[in-house]
Structure formats: structure tokens, C-alpha cells
From TrEMBL:
Protein origin, superkingdom: Eukaryota
Gene Ontology molecular function, alphabetical: guanyl-nucleotide exchange factor activity; molecular adaptor activity
Broad class of the protein's primary localization: membrane
A Gene Ontology cellular-component term: Ragulator complex
Protein name (record): Ragulator complex protein LAMTOR1
Keywords: Endosome, Lipoprotein, Lysosome, Membrane, Myristate, Palmitate
GO biological process: cellular response to amino acid stimulus; cholesterol homeostasis; endosomal transport; lysosome organization; positive regulation of MAPK cascade; positive regulation of TOR signaling; regulation of receptor recycling
Annotated membrane topology: Lipid-anchor
InterPro entries: LAMTOR1/MEH1 (IPR028209)
Amino acid sequence: PLRSRRSGSNIIDVSAADSQGMEQHEYMDRARQYSTRLAVLSASLPHWKQLPPLPSLTSQPHQVLASEP
């Protein structure tokens, strides 16, 4: 429940993006907000950048994905 609430607060509602009633400035504000949040989250997860990529020719990717980091 706590995780759900915290995750819910990090979601940007883009459902109105297709709405004809949305003003351009509202769309630009949402895009700016999304970009800012993405930059903050990307900067806070540097360990993702250090993980080695999956081997390109592995015959058993499920074992690679299930292994400990």
C-alpha cells in the first residue's frame, strides 16, 4: 500500500494529451515536468549504468536475467 501510494505520486497523467481541449502551454508544462522527473530519476540510479549488458548470443537469457547482480 505505501509503495503503491508512492508510485502513484510519481506518475504523470498523460491521458489528456490527446484531448483537443488541452492548450499548448499545458502540453509544454507536462512535457517539461516529465523531462525533469526523468532526469532526476536517471541521476539517482547510477548503478544501472554500471551493469554489464546481456551477452548478445546467449542461448539461455532466462538464466542470465535470473542470476545475482
